[in-house]
C-alpha cells in the first residue's frame, strides 16, 4: 500500500487533490491511502509520531512555516519519502531541490499532469519498496535502500546498521528477524552471531575476519572460514565476476 499526504493551507486545493486522487486510484486500480493536512505543523507531528509516508504533496508558501523548512525537518526522520512541491510560482524551484524534492508542480493542477506525475512517482516508490527495508529507529521511521547497507551488528538489544556513507542507523530488533527478512537477498550473509555482512562490500576474507572495503574487520568464529569463503566465491561467480583464489 502506498501512503500519501497532502499539505496545503488552502482547503480548496486539498479538496481538489483529494478528488484527483480518488479518481486516479480507481482508474489505475492502485492501493493508495491519503491524508490531508492544513499546516506543516500538523504534518510534522504525524511524521514525528512515526507515521511512514511514501509521497508528500507540499505547498511551498504557507503561514507560520514554509514548505522548504518543513521538508528539512521531515528529512531528519525520513530521507526517502518523495516530496512534490505545489506552488503558483517557480521562484523557489532551486531551494526545493536542495531538500531532495522529487518534483516541483505548478498550480493549478490539471488531471492529465496529476496522472502523469503519479504514474512516474509510483514507479519510483514501487522500485524502492522492492529493494528497501523499513526500520523503526530512534529518530523515527526510516527506509533503507538495501544496496547502501554494508553490515549490521548487534549491541545489547539494538541493531546498528552501517551504511556506505558512514551513517549508522540505530534500530530496535533482533538480528534473527532481520536475517529472515533478507533471506531472499543472497548478498547478505550472517558471518557471526552478532554480525551480518553485505558481500558486495567485502574486500577479503581470512580465517579470523572479513575485511570490508573501508577496512572494517568483522570477526569470524572458529571453523566458519571455509563455509564463508565458499559462499563468497559462489556469490561472485553467479554475478560473473572473477576473483583470484
Descriptive tags:
single chain, 245 residues, alpha/beta, Rossmann fold, OB fold (Dihydrolipoamide Acetyltransferase, E2P), 2 domains, 34% helix
Strand proportion, as a percent range, falls in 25-35%
**Mean pLDDT level:** 88
Q: Report on the biggest sheet.
A: 5 strands, parallel
Tally of alpha and pi helices: 7
In CATH, the homologous superfamily of the largest domain goes by the name Response regulator
CATH classification, class level of the largest domain: Alpha Beta
Span of the ends, CA to CA:
46 Å
Which residue ranges are poorly predicted, with pLDDT under 50 across at least 5 consecutive positions? Answer: 241-245
CATH fold description of the largest domain: Rossmann fold
Structure commentary:
By secondary structure, the chain is α/β, with parallel strands linked by helices. The protein has two domains: 2-130, Response regulator (Rossmann fold, 3-Layer(aba) Sandwich), CATH 3.40.50; 135-238, LytTr DNA-binding domain (OB fold (Dihydrolipoamide Acetyltransferase, E2P), Beta Barrel). It contains seven helices and 15 strands. It has helices at 11-27, 40-48, 67-77, 93-98, 111-130, 175-181, 225-238, and strands at 2-7, 32-37, 55-59, 82-87, 103-106, 132-137, 140-145, 149-155, 158-163, 168-172, 188-192, 195-198, 202-205, 209-212, 217-219. The longest helix is centred in the middle third of the chain and has 20 residues, at 111-130. The radius of gyration is 22 Å and the shape is elongated.
Amino acid at each position: 500500500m502506498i501512503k500519501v499526504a497532502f499539505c496545503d493551507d488552502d482547503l480548496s486545493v486539498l479538496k481538489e487533490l483529494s478528488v484527483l486522487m480518488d479518481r486516479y486510484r480507481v482508474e489505475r486500480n492502485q492501493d493508495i491511502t491519503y491524508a490531508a493536512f492544513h499546516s506543516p505543523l500538523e504534518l510534522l507531528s504525524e511524521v514525528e509520531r512515526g507515521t511512514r509516508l511514501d509521497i508528500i504533496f507540499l505547498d511551498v508558501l504557507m503561514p507560520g512555516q514554509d514548505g522548504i523548512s518543513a521538508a528539512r525537518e521531515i528529512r531528519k526522520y525520513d530521507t526517502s519519502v518523495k516530496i512534490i512541491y505545489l506552488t503558483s510560482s517557480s521562484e523557489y524551484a532551486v531551494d526545493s531541490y536542495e531538500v531532495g524534492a522529487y518534483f516541483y508542480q505548478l498550480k493549478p493542477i490539471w488531471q492529465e499532469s496529476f496522472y502523469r506525475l503519479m504514474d512516474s512517482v509510483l514507479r519510483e516508490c514501487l522500485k524502492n519498496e522492492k529493494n528497501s527495508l523499513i526500520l523503526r529507529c530512534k529518530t523515527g521511521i526510516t527506509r533503507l535502500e538495501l544496496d547502501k547497507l554494508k553490515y549490521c551488528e548487534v549491541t545489547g538489544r539494538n541493531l546498528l546498521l552501517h551504511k556506505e556513507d558512514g551513517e549508522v542507523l540505530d534500530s530496535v530488533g533482533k538480528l534473527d528477524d532481520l536475517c529472515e527478512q533478507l533471506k531472499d537477498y543472497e548478498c547478505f550473509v550472517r558471518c557471526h552471531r552478532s554480525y551480518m555482512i553485505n558481500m558486495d562490500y567485502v574486500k577479503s576474507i581470512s580465517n579470523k575476519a572479513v575485511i570490508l572495503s573501508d577496512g572494517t574487520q568483522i570477526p569470524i568464529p572458529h571453523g566458519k572460514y571455509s563455509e564463508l569463503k565458499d559462499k563468497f566465491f559462489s556469490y561472485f561467480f553467479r554475478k560473473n565476476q572473477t576473483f583470484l583464489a
